[in-house]
Amino acid sequence: MTTMKAVGLYRYLPIDHPESLVDLELEKPTPQGRDLLVRVHAISVNPVDTKVRSPKEQVEATPRVLGWDVAGIVEQVGPDCTLFQPGDTVYYAGSIVRPGANSEFHVVDERIVGRKPSTLSFAQAAALPLTAITAWEALFDRLHISQEPARNAGKSILIIGAAGGVGSIAVQLAKHVGLTVVGTASREESTRWARELGADHIINHFEAFVPQLQELSFAHVDYILCLNSTDTHWVNMAEAIAPQGSICSIVETKNTLDLSLLNSKSVTFAWELMFTRSMYQTPDMIEQHHLLNRVAELVDQGLIKSTISDVHSPINAENLRRAQAKLEAGRTIGKIVLEAQV
User: Fold this and answer.
1) Which of 33, 181, 301, 312 is the most buried (most CB within 10 A)?
2) Domains along the chain?
3) What are residue 174's phi and psi, to 5 degrees?
4) What per-residue confidence (pLDDT) applies to 341?
5) 170: burial class by Cβ within 10 Å (0-12, 13-18, 19+)?
6) pLDDT value at 332 more than 90
7) Which residues, in sequence order, are bridge partners of residue 49?
8) Which residues contact 236 (CB under 8 A, 6 or more apart)?
9) What is the pLDDT of residue 186?
10) pTM exceeding the 0.90 threshold for the entire prediction
């Protein structure tokens, strides 16, 4: 049996516990069907990692490997693959219902994999897939925003949490398609980061939205993308959205949302989860391959930039515990990346 190094868990523990994430030796996987075997060069951490790992009573009989942001090189392809071949450089976010990529090698369905931007290092590329897919699907599939700038003239979007991982990409994509972007931030450094990425205006998400928007001469906004506490911002969003506008959120709720607040304005509300296509093997799963390739083109054209902010090496349990602890503190800007010593 050929083995590989990996980081995983048996028990769901607080991140400061030394066994919350542990170094492992696992069997190296073999690609089947449309799977690629990828040698992992870099990974990044996301809130989903901390949510999946969060303390609970469950104990795993076999170790669970997390990690849903990868850049690497195709080592081997399954018998049914048509999109890639060994030696191709790739980036992707993987599937929540399969083993994660915090390992030396990883198998992934080629339909959710894109070609790595040629102008980026593996570390820079690893910061992009999950947030880029989420932002792209939220803007263009859920909010149905046109990708033609001329059709968005005079239209505005409010992005709640503009300096976070998804927000950092959403701001850039929204500006690229011609929207006026109002971001929310509450600290000087996050405000500066969002403005540097293209946000036209910044408001504070700890204060009522409408008075702040009115000070900026906005009666309302046409679109809202919520990337922070749907529960907290629900009433503010209902007040700020334009009649016949659209709201999308990526943050699950603890409370039941009062959808009647959207009734008189005929407002559309949608959820976005970038794992939906891979989780349910939807007929359009290959759209994630296409959109990642499109994002790579925009990056290589200098129109979108990686939001990497912090890099550690190597990929091991100690560094992953440190990275997840930073993420749980809730004050990160951009993306934390771990680079393998390949």
Assistant:
1) 181
2) 3-128+278-339 (3.90.180.10), 132-271 (3.40.50.720)
3) -65, -40
4) 81
5) buried
6) no
7) none
8) 208, 209, 210
9) 87
10) yes
